[in-house]
Amino acid sequence: MGQPQAGSGSQIVGGIIGLLPDWLEIPLLCLLFLAIVAGWIRSIRSKLAQRRAVRSVAPVAAPQSGRQEPSGADFLGAYAPQQRQDADTR
Predict the structure, then answer these.
(1) Cα separation of 55 and 57, whole Å?
(2) Containing domain of residue 44, as a range?
(3) pLDDT of residue 39
(4) Looking at the domain assignment, is residue 30 inside a domain?
(5) Does residue 9 sit within a domain?
(6) 3/41: higher pLDDT
(7) Average pLDDT in the 63-70 region?
(8) What is the distance between the alpha carbons of residues 47 and 26, in angstroms, rounded to a whole number?
(9) What's the rounded mean pLDDT across residues 35-53?
């Protein structure tokens, strides 16, 4: 029960802050707090940017050199555009 509950890092920071005068202690604590919050905000923004980048990936176009599978346009039935027959091909 006589052991301190804080970690060694926080004890070091507390000791350094305890050595500072009061007029300097409060602004430094505020700057430390703002630095931690800014780090959190930056990490959250980067995670959101990664999610947006993954979601906005454009589909890969099929190769233009020859079709390998029939497309939906091959099965339009009555809605397919009429094929033109030129006089030269008859």
Answers:
(1) 6
(2) 23-54
(3) 96
(4) yes
(5) no
(6) 41
(7) 60
(8) 32
(9) 93
* Single-letter amino acid code for the residue at 47: K
> Domain count of the chain?
1
Q: Report the chain's C-alpha Rg in angstroms.
A: 34
What dihedral do alpha carbons 40, 42, 46, 47 form, nearest 10°? 10
- Could you give the CA distance from residue 28 to residue 24 in angstroms, rounded to a whole number? 6
Report yes or no on 15 lying in a domain.
Answer: no
HEC states along 2-37?
A: CCCCCCHHHHHHHHHHHHCCHHHHHHHHHHHHHHHH
54 pLDDT tier (thresholds 50, 70, 90): confident
The rounded distance, in Å, linking the Cα atoms of 35 and 48 is 20
| Token pair in block for residue 89 | 């091909």
